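All the exercises in this workshop are built on plain-text protein records. A learned vocabulary of local backbone shapes supplies the integers on the structure line. Once this layout is familiar, the rest of the handout is easier to follow. An example says more than a description, so a record of this kind follows:
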Amino acid sequence: MARGFNKVILMGNLARDPEIRYTVDKRAMARFAVAVNNTWKDKNGELQESVDFIPVVVWGPQAENCERYLKKGNPVLIEGRIQVRSYEAKDGSGKRYATDVVASGVTFLGSKRQEESSGSFGDEGFGDSIRKDKRFGASDEDFPMDISEMQNEEDADIPF
């Protein structure tokens, strides 16, 4: 029998804030939905659009980070696998099925300015906290100059 392959990569925006719960052994589990847009042209050539809301489950410390830093509308990249589970309906009407993406990795997307303006990461973005954190051996001089600091176009010697 051939070995299977189950890999999912999603990029979209959070449809709601992550909901976190803890198992009896105190393991964190976060649930949220990712809204993924889909556009296509119909047979008349008109642009059509739909949105899929895909349920995602994240486990462990990564679940706690999702709850701490992600809010509705934040862009994310999810890597994981599809999981289908079954359960008995509470009303006794039979077996039900649920499909989730179980995340093995969650990447927070978006610009630092978006994160700061939404307050998602507190008073400082990730870059600022790394620059100020001397454990990383970095200082403000170790990072490239911000283009907004340039006086005029003559000084703009950008190497790319």
